[in-house]
Amino acid sequence: MLSRVASSVYWLSRYVERAENVARFIDVNYNLTLGESDSFGDQWAPLVYTTGDQIPYEERYGAPNRDNVLKFLLFDEENPNSILSCVSYARENARTIREIIPTVVWEQLNQFYFMVRSAARTPATLDQPQEFCERVRLASHMLVGATEATMSHGEAWHFSRVGRLIERGDKTSRIVDVQYYILLPDARDVGTALDVVRWSALLRSASALAMYRRQYGKITPDRVADFLILDTYFPRAMHFCLRKAQESLRCITGSTAGTFLNLAEQRMGLLCSTMDYTSVEDIIQQGLHQYIDGFQNQLNSVGEAIHEDFFTTSQQAGNQGQIQTQSASQNSQSQIS
Fold first, then answer.
1. Which residue in 182, 198, 290, 318 could disulfide with 46, CB within 3.0 to 4.6 Å?
2. Cα–Cα dist 19/137, whole Å
3. Distances in Å between the alpha carbon of 92 and those of 7, 108, 155, 192, 337?
4. Taking the complete model, does pTM exceed 0.90, yes or no?
């Protein structure tokens, strides 16, 4: 497979997953604040921190408030992590590999793109974003389903899965970190009804509430952290995502368990092994924010190694700067119209 094709498949999946997760963050936060812009103003700022775009946001909009945060994360074409930008980048990557992806995948992505474009031209979307966020999630699920059902599970499919799962693991880590580190305004709220509501919102943002209830029942912070970080059966848990991404890397390179043939496999194996032998008590003792910060740095290094091992150094203009994660500025990316 050409490295250009592998890169496009990988980033197509990452951008679709990123758009879905931004929609999840917005929808849950909107429900948590009941859509208020003033009395819950401080609760909109963490959404910008979640995507790692607080600096460009502050430069353009100033202090966070409901309307500006929604505009920035939903439809701002100058924000490379907005839903509109992500879907545009995904479509452009798909356009360059039309011969690789099934027709139904291309058609579904086109419908996704035009749905977002249409919503961006409708002012009412910003007033009531829940319906739009739900449509984004469903469009993403349909696209993933079409890929799973109609694309041969060869190298291209594995690159697609690696991209999707690395992005998903990164976003799950960010929503857990934001809840622990930013969203809880007062230590006196710990253990109260407000605290339970917040943790329930966190689980809903990962579509994890029902599965968590089935496994643990009562909502407690340490169990929520354990479920979203270390669980090996829930599809949006960080550990699950990395294990499946590691499986796909092995299928691409042909290596066996316990061995590695390149830097990406080595770094992924080290990160997975660390999680295999980590308990939630170890994480809490270290400090959850510190653990998440270290995890994200290691995941960033995995992404950089994937780029070095599999992709060419000279990419199309639409792909420039893609190896940077949300924790770094992506302003170097060219805008795709």
1. 182
2. 8
3. 12, 14, 20, 47, 9
4. no
In the numeric block, the tokens 């740095």 are attached to: 297
Mean pLDDT of 64-87: 94
Beta strands in the chain, from DSSP E residues, in sequence order: none
Structure tokens, 152: 């041969």
pLDDT confidence tier of residue 304, bands split at 50, 70 and 90: very high
Q: Which of 34, 35, 113 is nearest to 70 (CA)?
A: 35
DSSP string, 51-78: HT-HHHHHHHH-S--HHHHHHHHHT-TT
**Length reported for the chain:** 337
Percent of the chain residues topping a pLDDT of 70: 84
Residue 83 contacts residue 133 (beta carbons within 8 Å) = no
Tell me what the mean pLDDT of segment 127-143 comes to.
Answer: 94
Instruction: Break the chain into its structural domains and give their ranges.
Output: 1-151, 153-314
Q: How far is 112 from 109, CA to CA, in rounded Å?
A: 5
